[in-house]
Design a protein that fits this description.
Elements: H1 3-17, H2 22-42, H3 52-64, H4 69-88, H5 115-123, H6 130-145, H7 149-153, E1 160-161, E2 166-171, E3 174-179, H8 182-199, H9 219-232, H10 243-254, H11 259-266, H12 271-292
Antiparallel strand pairs: 1-2, 2-3
Helix pairs in contact: 1-2, 2-4, 5-6, 6-8, 6-10, 10-12, 11-12
């Protein structure tokens, strides 16, 4: 069932069965059309087949795009209503929106890894086979650049300049060039020269990262990869593909990086999205103080 048909059915349901006000109807339908647009441009799925991780990624994307707490909360309410309807109508067999949490007063601070936890995670892929080389390169690149997972899997081989030590990232018709640290450059170089030629399905495959079939890596495929290495590293925190992005930003701030430079590397349109990490770093410093100061 196509998104357009789902949206039309949901609109009739709100009007004819729920008798919602004109303003509520307008807000809900605007939210659902924005969800459909995101799924169309950022994923390989649609409204019916979207899972909990996909919806969670969408909520994170809204926050990172500078949406207000009220806007994100209303969007979550709209999605909950939509997927409740789809479940009742037996169009879906499980409701992926049940775990979405509405923000009440302030943005929830993102969870980050410590520097040691990052090291543990990056150490897990063993460069003994093609998969190990590829996975090491993906994790190193994600932490080196702070790019979104959709941006990572959308990279083409031509977007990498190993000589200059930079990668060109595309997002919503915008482009940014992000530097890489030496270990990420080395991991990418090894992957590109040693294993990628044997992994790609056709010689002219443009995708930088491919799956075992030789086609472009999917978001769902990378989700499984990062969960696998979280378990191997015995990291108790619930790591998502966004965790390395958040850790990248927080660690740069901790080490004195300019917040406007971080904003540019992250691709945030609004500085307020980047300032979330300042609040996170300050909170961590306060926690350390309260635990360590003898008179705290």
């Amino acid at each position: 069932m196509q998104n357009s048909e789902i949206i039309e059915r949901f609109e009739h349901y709100l009007k004819d069965e729920k008798n919602v006000s004109a303003n509520t109807l307008s807000s809900y339908m605007r939210d659902i059309r924005q969800l459909a647009a995101y799924l169309d441009t950022h994923t390989e799925t649609d409204i019916v087949s979207a899972d909990a991780e996909t919806l969670g990624d969408y909520v994170l994307w809204q926050r990172e795009s500078g949406k207000s707490v009220a806007t994100v909360s209303r969007s979550i309410a709209s999605m909950k209503s939509l997927y409740s309807y789809l479940f009742i109508q037996q169009i879906i067999t499980a409701n992926p929106a049940t775990k979405l949490v509405t923000d009440r007063n302030t943005e929830r601070l993102p969870q980050i890894l410590t520097s040691r936890e990052v090291e543990l995670l990056l150490e897990q892929p063993r460069c003994v086979d093609a998969k190990g080389y590829r996975d090491r390169a993906m994790l190193e690149l994600l932490y080196a650049t702070g790019m979104r997972v959709t941006e990572l899997i959308d990279l083409d081989i031509g977007d990498v300049n190993l000589g200059a030590g930079v990668v060109r990232c595309h997002s919503r018709n915008k482009e940014r060039v992000i530097p890489m640290y030496p270990a990420a450059i080395k991991a990418l170089e090894d992957y590109i020269t040693l294993v990628r030629p044997q992994m790609i399905a056709v010689p002219d495959e443009p995708s930088l990262f491919v799956n075992i079939s030789g086609d472009r890596m999917s978001r769902q495929g990378f989700w499984k990869i990062i969960k696998y290495y979280q378990k191997k590293a015995n990291i108790e925190k619930d790591i998502t593909p966004h965790t390395l992005r958040h850790s990248f930003a927080a660690h740069l701030l901790e080490n004195g990086a300019d917040i406007h430079a971080i904003q540019e590397m992250l691709g945030h349109a609004d500085i307020s999205s980047t300032q979330v990490y300042s609040h996170l770093v300050k909170k961590q410093l306060k926690d350390v103080y309260n635990k360590a100061h003898p008179r705290a």
